[in-house]
Amino acid sequence: MSSQTDQSASHNDTSDDDHLPARRDDGTVAMADDPFADPGLPPHEPRRQDIDERAAKRSERTVAFLFTLSMLATVGFIVSYVAIPIDEIVYIWPIGHISGLNFALGLTLAVALFCIGAGAIHWARTLMSDVEVPEERHAIEATPDVKAHVLEEFAKGAEESQFGRRKLVRNTMFGALALVPLTGLVLLRDTGPLPGNKLQHTAWKKGSLIINESTLQPLRPEDITVGSLTQAMPEGLDPHAEDFHAEIAKAAVMLVRLEPEDIKDPRSAEWGHEGILCYSKICTHIGCPATLYEQQTHHALCPCHQSTFDLADGARVLFGPAGHPLPQLRITVNDEGFLEALGDFDEPPGPSYWERG
User: Fold this and answer.
1) Whole-prediction pTM value?
2) Is a pLDDT exceeding 90 seen at residue 241?
3) What is the H or E stretch that residue 244 is in?
4) Within 10 A of 342 (CB to CB), how many other CB atoms are there?
5) Which residues have CB under 8 Å from 174's CB, separation 6+?
6) Count of beta carbons in the 10 Å neighbourhood of residue 94
7) Cα–Cα distance measured from residue 299 to residue 313, given in angstroms and rounded to the nearest whole number
8) For the domain 198-356, what is the CATH code?
9) What single DSSP character describes residue 301?
């Protein structure tokens, strides 16, 4: 029993380090009989550019050529976008018939991006330093000595990259990187032309005949009876045209005829003709047609959210979420006896937008 106890105590006194493989003075592990020696890093072999300045110059010119080609491709992208019609079809072997614009944009953008990448890689492989330096891992929080060492290495790396010395490479790289974002900027043109002030105007203009929306015939005062409501639009709108719905959405109107003494607003009476008043029928809330007319009260109701307008009092809002009255169109009768507009609405029709504040 005593012998077993002594053996156990002797085993416990043995340090854990005794079971670990031995290490050499340089810190590498020495296994039994050392079957796999640490080969270390292979000796550094200088490149041709490191010993021959003419070869370095050729590499510099190659990198500059790639960056310059990227700039030219970016310019080609912009020119293609502006000059090539969107509906032009070309034959490209072996692809076949494709959009000329898409092909030109894809090709020029690919060349611009490829040349920037290829130029950067060629610069790194032939001109920047390629010496491999091993470094021990360290704690996340660096000591002041390590920080100073990192800054020193950064400055050394910047010097070895020859960024300051190879001005041709540096300047052409800056040019390529500055121009290639223009490809994305030019694509903003696809959002359409600038709207200008067209949102404030409709198809109505001075002298536009008022056309019955159902019969497509110009209206005379005698076509509109007291208490009736007629939906109309300006002349020149073709229901089969591509932009018809966009234009009618702003220009659609309704005409009501009241007894002149029932009109409360003097300005509305002046802008009408013999009790005929012409208002935009587009609700000023969210753009529904406010054409449910109650002839006894002269109220127009929007069926979507029940906004109610008093057509006898300048179409002011009586109820509902609409923010302002229906715009009125100033009308008259021409020499042939047809109703016509004296201009556009005095304010943009339809839902409120930011300019109304």
Assistant:
1) 0.50
2) no
3) helix 244-251
4) 15
5) none
6) 4
7) 10
8) 2.102.10.10
9) E
Measured between alpha carbons, how far is 280 from 350 in angstroms, rounded to an integer? 8
How far apart (Å, rounded) are the C-alpha atoms in residues 252 and 211? 10
The residues spanned by each domain of the chain are 48-133+140-191, 198-356
Length, in residues, of the chain: 357
The residues, ordered by sequence, that sit 6+ positions from 304 with a Cβ below 8 Å of its Cβ are 283, 285, 286, 288
Q: Is the peptide bond before 42 cis (omega within 30 degrees of 0)?
A: no
**What whole-number distance in Å separates Cα of residue 281 and Cα of residue 283?**
6
Locate tokens 């053996």: which residue?
A: 7
194 CB-side CA count, 13 A: 2
Q: By three-state DSSP, how is residue 180 classified?
A: coil
Please give the pLDDT value at position 22. 57
Tell me how far apart the alpha carbons of residues 69 and 46 are, in angstroms, rounded to a whole number.
29
Whose structure tokens read 């047809």? 338
- Take residue 238 and report the two structure tokens written for it: 């073709």
CA distance 182 to 192: 17
Contacts of 345 (CB under 8 A, 6+ apart): 202, 204, 280, 327, 328, 329
Q: Write the DSSP symbol of residue 316.
A: E
CA-atom Rg of the chain in angstroms: 41
Least reliable range by pLDDT among 30-34, 129-133, 218-222, 306-310 = 30-34
Cis amide leading into 221 (omega within 30) = no
The C-alpha atoms of residue 267 and residue 328 are separated, in whole angstroms, by 10
Tokens of 61: 């010119």
